[in-house]
Every structure is written in structure tokens, then in C-alpha cells.
Amino acid sequence: MKDSNTNLILKNDRLKVEISYPGKQYTGSRFDWTGFITGVYLDNKYSFCAKESQIEGQGSGGIGFCNEFGINTPIGYNEIKPGEKFPKIGVGLLTRPDQSDYFFFDKYQVSPFDFTIFQDSNSITFVSQPKECNGYAVKMTKKLTLSQNTLTINYHLENTGSQEIITEEYCHNFISINNNLIGPGYVLRFPYNLIIKDLPNVLEFSGNEIRLTKKPSKDFNCQPKGFDTVQNHYWELLYTPLKTGVREYSDFPLKYVALWGTTHVISPEVFIDVKIKPGKTQEWSRRYEFFTY
Length: 293
Known about the structure:
Layout: E1 7-11, E2 15-20, E3 36-42, E4 46-47, E5 65-69, E6 85-88, E7 92-95, E8 110-112, E9 115-119, E10 123-128, E11 138-147, E12 150-159, E13 165-173, E14 186-189, E15 203-206, E16 209-212, E17 220-222, E18 233-239, E19 244-250, E20 257-261, E21 266-276, E22 281-292
Antiparallel strand pairs: 1-2, 2-3, 3-4, 5-13, 6-7, 7-8, 9-10, 10-11, 11-12, 12-22, 13-21, 14-16, 14-18, 15-16, 17-20, 18-19, 19-22, 20-21
């Protein structure tokens, strides 16, 4: 179903998930337009999604749970001249403006892919139709499914072009629990002992746990390591005053883990390598559990 703001809605007895129609709320060149999750609500009491920036016009337009392909490895960008196009999975064909290197934060002209949407009682499926560009073409099917307090996102990519697809994907989880500012009370846990170099001064870590020691006044980031010691990766973010949290389980080999945050939002990020030869496919999933304890 859809609400008055033309969002798609997935809902059961525990969760309500709001998903923007491709090209409606977000029209930028960075994030995947499909499965762009702008709201998650647990038991009609707890919310989890925040905007990347609280100032209109700043940032790159991220909201809630939105993923991105090619933040570091844009497909075909280095092979083309200014004025020519390159593909961004989940978005469309982007135009290279000049001789400068690709930068994910820049705004590129977008010729969007065609998207098809299918919905039943507990799932929504988005299909991004392939559009060939210099031998590159990908058909992506992304299915979002609700079960109790769990949201699962399944990815299926098929290389329909003549060139190998080499890039990466992650989900930029813009999280704030009940809109509480980031600071003491937020705890991030992993299933392994952490190794962190260049730790931001608003964080401290011990064993498998990262804690916010004070409220940040600006952006912070780091790359926690140690994930190569586990096969089934997950992270969980808790807001201890409300005894509420979210976990993300990853069913794929990790490329790396990153943590980004600012005054009002915190984002654990798990990256996967995407490598698909012509005619082949790649599949993976992300599973989110929203809970109280």
C-alpha cells in the first residue's frame, strides 16, 4: 500500500517500513533509488531513521537505510571522456562532467533507469531494468520482506552486458533512535574484539564494544577491524536509556567495516565486493532486527 506522501508501506504487527518510490523523494546521483527506506517504526513506539543532514540543501540527500554502489570504484568512469556516460547501479546513467576524478559526494547529471515494482502482503520487489552503456549493463532485483520484527533485503544482480562488473556496495544506515542526538547512551557491539586505529575523540572502545563518550560537534569516522575472525557477521546498535536497538546481519564475505556519525545520526556500514562476469549473477542479503531488551 502507499500513504498520502506516495511512499510505499510495508507493515505487520511489529514493524512499519516506509519506502520512497524511485525518483520521488530522492533524485540524487549517489544512493540507490530502489528500496530507499525513509522510516522504520517498531511497535508504534520507536523510530530509527534520520536524515543525513538537518539543514536543507546540505549533504547528499541520504535518509534512513539507503545503499550505494561504487563509492570508491565507479563502473567505467575512467574509460570515458567528459560529456560521456557511465552507469551507477540502482540509479541510472551518469554524465562525467570534466577531467576530475570521480567523487561520490558530487552531483552528476542522471538519466535514470526504468524501475518496476511488485508488492504483496509482506514484501516489495524492485527491478532495475538494464540499460547498456559501453558494454556495461546490470539487471538488479531487490526484494524487501517483513517477518515479525525483522526486515530482510535480498539483492540479485545479473550482468547482461559484455564487460565484467567490478565495484562495491554498502548500506549507509542513517540511524537515530527516537530522534535522540548522538552521544552517551549509544553503544555499538560486534561479535569480535575490535581493532581501531585513529579513534575519534568522541568514542572509546573495549573488547567488542564502542561507546560514545560525549556528544560530537562535527562528523567523525573510523574503520573497525577484527571482522576476519568471524564467519557470520553482525553489528548491533543500542540506545540504552530506552533499551532499544537494531542489528544488521550480513550473509556475505566482508570487504571492510566503517563507522560514520555526526551530531544527530550514526551509521555503521558493512561493505561487499561486487564482481560479476558477463552472463553471471551475484546474490547477497542484509537482515535487520529491530528490538527492545
